[in-house]
Amino acid sequence: MDGDDSRDEQSDPGGQSDGVSAASPVSLSLLDQEQQQRLAEELVEQARAQGLDLIGPGGLLAGLTKRVLETALEAEMVEHLGYEAHQVAGRDGGNSRNGKRSKTVLTDLGPVEIEVPRDRDGSFEPQIVRKRQRRLESIDQIVLSLTARGLTTGEVSAHFAEVYGASVGKDQVSTITEKVVAEMTDWANRPLDRVYPVIFIDAIVVKIRDGKVTNRPVYAAIGVTVNGERDILGLWVGDGGEGAKFWLQVLTEIKNRGVDDVLILVCDGLKGLPDSVGNVWPLTTVQTCVIHLLRNSFRYAGRHDWEKIAKDLKPVYTAPTEPAAAARFEEFAEAWGSRYPAIIALWRKAWAEFVPFLDYDVEIRKIICTTNAIESLNARYRRAVRARGHFPTEQSALKCLYLVTRSLDPTGRGRARWVIRWKAALNAFAITFEGRLTPSTTN
Prior knowledge:
443 residues, two-stranded antiparallel sheet, 16 helices, disordered C terminus
């Protein structure tokens, strides 16, 4: 904690209170591997001789952290005043050192007490550990990472107490996570690519308290870029009764962020979406998600028949042409229609959005049917949602899902490879949709 007790800058000259040798700090980048190894061995031997643990409060690494932070702060003070401690050049210079104050900061290794130098006119603004800063930045990242895994503020607070022996209150956790709201807004409004070969629109269900706890869909738009990457375009909360107006608003927002064309948009029976797509991107083909169509078929069948149904439906969606697929489907309907008429009705209703799939090259079919990238994303979303139970507001739900998205890739954009053999698919898209994948979009 900050204190008012000033300490003379000449006190504790050896700096031995942390149990670490007072040898001058040396940049490891200037040492070769052998020297680094020798230095590490010496430090470990000293720690053992003094009965210090390697990790934990008061351990070797905590002591090193203390020394590094204090050395960095002293270097900042030297730069601020323009002279080293005790130099004659500092006399009568208008400003000078004014002792030190104790401060405890939370680090990855637990709480570490450091001595922060002060100057007489109070103009020193340290950067490595700023005024009123109680946590190193890495601690904030740990909080955000734990939140992305679905831990509540109380659970994050308990985690720090158990693992680091440090107190991080629920209010502090909330303050840290609230910092990402502005970042989330920037992410949701960032410019997008000019063209996407495929965009998938998928939903997960979350519980949100709005007077009472209700199930609400959160829609994720997931694009496949011309470079074969997954790009999570955004997240939108619905109320379960979305129609053409809602989808027109979502798609227009995506277009306004720079998306001039989408070759194929894949969805699963979302009411009003196909009509809205035509208003925003007239050339876009709306395709029913074949995987979702298969899974929805299983809902109407006994589990013992799933394998047989999947085997009998495969000739339908792997048929070379629409007439061939229609013939195979009639065979399927004759075999299963009397037992599961709802499955037959499901496919007939979705047929108009299913058949475009049959016109595509096999490489394009693979992209549309490859759902691993979507399933892995949804699995992470659902894990975080289940851990939280329900959310007090829409924003808190979106914040949790954004933190999951943010954790998927170092850039914070949630990008990842879609498939390994992308070039074959890119060539198929370029031929099938000639002129719509321009060279400028494939750089």
